[in-house]
């Protein structure tokens, strides 16, 4: 059974969704039969990779949110994160272009460490406040994952995996995916947003029992981010 997950490193709901999905999967007797494939998605590919913004600055400048609204939304997301065991540090988080971080995930996929790369990138971005578009930061993450740092440096300094990242984004468009996180379960069902652990468990169990047919959305929509904004 295969689960494809479209995600962006700077999406807080993707981090929450990852934790909830993994908690659900861990409880299931067929967990070792589930193959998870991480797919790239960029919420804002127009961002300059050489620049960073704070979360509040980004919401105000790019989304047009007044300061009070931005702070309210950040507070709500932080509460959701706490319920999933994530201690978001939005005051330190730096918003930037995430294309290079997706290249690192594809490199990690080569060594069957894509999930570990996703987790490391979320931690660096949301907890440590480091720049996930910075080459040195990404190479350091690769090293901590046991990936050769010279290879990581070479990949991130070239166009290697550019096509793979772009293909994931194209696949998202072809599947009608406009927000993340987005999960396609065995090509049959779709689950959108940061669903509760129980909802993921139910969807996984239902999918496991059935054969592969064109997917349909079996969720009621959860907290997610799209190219315009985040919604709860």
From TrEMBL:
Residues 3-205 form the DSBA-like thioredoxin domain. GO terms for molecular function: oxidoreductase activity. InterPro entries: DSBA-like_thioredoxin_dom, Thioredoxin-like_sf. It comes from the Bacteria. PANTHER family: GLUTATHIONE S-TRANSFERASE KAPPA, THIOREDOXIN SUPERFAMILY PROTEIN. This is Disulfide bond formation protein DsbA. The lineage of its organism: Bacteria, Pseudomonadati, Bacteroidota, Flavobacteriia, Flavobacteriales.
